Amino acid sequence: MVQLEDILRARTRISSTVKVTPMMKSHQLSERVGAQIFLKSEHLQKTGSFKIRGATNRVIQAKDDEGAKFVTAASSGNHGQAVAYIANQLEVPAKIVVPTDATTSKVNAIKEYRGLVEFYGTTSAERIPRAKELADELDGVYIPPYDHPHIIAGQGTVGLEILEQIDDVDTIIVPVGGGGLSAGILTVIKEKNPDIRVIGVEPEAGNDTAVSLDRGKITAVDGTDQTIADGLRTTQPGDLTFPILQKYMDELVLVNEDEIRYAMSFVMERMKQMVEPSSATTVAAAMFGKVHVADEKVVCVLSGGNVDLGKLGQTLVKTEGGS
């Protein structure tokens, strides 16, 4: 299991690539929720999401320790962008396997970072075996999106920054897909201050972790491609991430598609910040009372901001009160 020391070493390793992202405060959101709401702005991170943290940590070690001369990844977009970016920086060729319905802007970004793209299936259960197959065929190294110690440790650096940016934080709300981000943050928080609550949030249409936690074992679910939160469309949590979530996560809540759309629209309209639906799940959880946080200091992790502008009009909804 990943330890705090692994995450501290990861921060040093990735520091020349990864930015320390700002912590924003929304007064309107705070008033609505009845708590001090802060937004950890990973949508402003290099490549547009937190994924660059884990990808950088893993690809650097794959090259330096394993002599990788080629890497592959399976990704709905953000992880693929991150792997393509850091691989290009390190002059390691990369091929990214993306779903057939991948967001156009994310695919274009992968190509701009000189990553090769292959479209394959619609779920992670389809993409991951294909990416591993390519790595085997081309004598490369597969870079998983979440289920690897180096990935988890890299993502955990978000937790280190939260503790340094907000004094006396009470609750952290984090989106849950495969579990790399949540597992990394949980490791930091619970090893440093176990009194801080960490709440995970999933879309109702992508509730594989909720089902797995309820059954006490990793359980695959169907239909995760029905949620607009494309970054959270995993069919099951990871073998390495799930035990960390089981051990440390205080609670997992679900939000529906309308709540995600409203939260995304609210952040864009009131804060002038473009976040993707996966990010908006944490704001939705606070806005719609899924988490009881009255009078607390709360951090909502905004995991990414890579939005397909061509589909933006279909995603946003009207919020009351105007801008």
TrEMBL record:
Keywords: Lyase, Magnesium, Pyridoxal phosphate. Catalyzes the anaerobic formation of alpha-ketobutyrate and ammonia from threonine in a two-step reaction. The first step involved a dehydration of threonine and a production of enamine intermediates (aminocrotonate), which tautomerizes to its imine form (iminobutyrate). Both intermediates are unstable and short-lived. The second step is the nonenzymatic hydrolysis of the enamine/imine intermediates to form 2-ketobutyrate and free ammonia. In the low water environment of the cell, the second step is accelerated by RidA. Residues 15-304 form the Tryptophan synthase beta chain-like PALP domain. Its EC number is 4.3.1.19. One of its GO terms (biological process) is D-serine biosynthetic process. GO terms for molecular function: ATP binding; L-serine ammonia-lyase activity; magnesium ion binding; pyridoxal phosphate binding; serine racemase activity; threonine deaminase activity; threonine racemase activity. Its cofactor is Mn(2+); Mg(2+); pyridoxal 5'-phosphate; Ca(2+). It comes from Filobacillus milosensis. InterPro entries: Ser/Thr_deHydtase_PyrdxlP-BS (IPR000634), TrpB-like_PALP (IPR001926), TrpB-like_PALP_sf (IPR036052). This is threonine ammonia-lyase. It catalyses: L-threonine = 2-oxobutanoate + NH4(+). It holds the Pfam family PALP. CDD domains: Thr-dehyd. Belongs to the serine/threonine dehydratase family.
